[in-house]
Design a protein that fits this description.
Elements lengths: L1 H18 L1 E22 L2 E4 L2 E6 L6 E11 L2 E10 L9 E3 L5 E3 L5 E8 L2 E7 L3 H6 L19 H4 L7 E5 L6 E9 L11 E11 L2 E11 L7 E11 L4 E10 L8 E12 L4 E13 L8 E13 L4 E14 L5 E13 L1
Antiparallel strand pairs: 1-2, 1-3, 1-4, 1-20, 4-5, 5-8, 6-7, 8-9, 9-10, 10-11, 11-12, 12-13, 13-14, 14-15, 15-16, 16-17, 17-18, 18-19, 19-20
Length: 348
Amino acid sequence: MKKNLIALAVLAASGVASAQSTVTLYGIADVWFGSTKTDTLVNGQAVGTRQTMVGSGGVDESRFGFKGSEDLGGGLKANFVLEQGFAIDNGAAGTTTDVNGNSVAASFSRQAYVGFSGGFGEAKIGKVATAYDDISGATRPAFNSALSPDSNVWVSHSAYNWNPNNSVYYATPSMSGFSGAVSYSLGENKTAATSAGKVASFNVKYEGGPVYAGLAYQTEKANGAADTAKFTRLNGSYDLGVVKLLAGYGHVASPVGAVGSKTNEYEIGVDYPVSSALTLSGGYAFSKTTDLGVGVADTKRNGFSVAAVYSLSKRTFLYGGVQAAKAKQDGSPDLKSDLYGIGIHHAF
């Protein structure tokens, strides 16, 4: 009888623990069809080939993942995320970057972390999106997508490391609309001859009523490198109800492949909700890169876009639009690029 009572007590306790834990399979399937053209220099001439294609991740990278949370009591929760990216057009798995900067296969290429959340905020450890990435695309026109006007215009979007390995991350709770976050990634590639690489990042933001404002800064230093890449981002938006105004500024110094260079980036845009289902968005972006080297002219880039999203349900929407950009450098022909596309985005 005593053994039976103990067994019942254990079963009851395990039942309570199970009820307090959740594990969710989730993901995004995003595919688009359209046409692209990008000029390159061939024998001093701008040459481009138009390509009709099916692409993956027009708005968001396709992905699947597992996430879970356990209520530990007193408002404290233990959380985990395991997330893998993939290309829905060909089924290729997403990759990650190793300590030497090489692209390698990964079981969970996007994020993989365990952490805690509660009244103190949230802490994570593992492969985590940086504090800079938290606000990087917050006010991009055209829904933070491949159709955004800064595509092929802003250096920062393709240059910074958004999800470095070996990271620790902390975000504060929101206090009267203000919040912040910090993250630090260890290179773990120190040798007797060189120091280890690192990625450090922070953000502060305000969200209250119609106003959003965010400031972020990230530094990246490769293993043994003398130079440090630096990324600054300032975003803002104001919702007038009829339309939402969007603006962004970025500054990049010494990114990989252009050590010593500096780039200033600007962007404006607007979101216009036509109805509860249809939203139009568009904008203009500009950047200027200087200090490319002795005798090398500055590079100026500009781009514009117009895009639309039509919601079919809470989890599925259609999107489409056009984006065009141009790069100018004294002594060289202009290099143009464009993208026309329509797609479908489904979250599960």
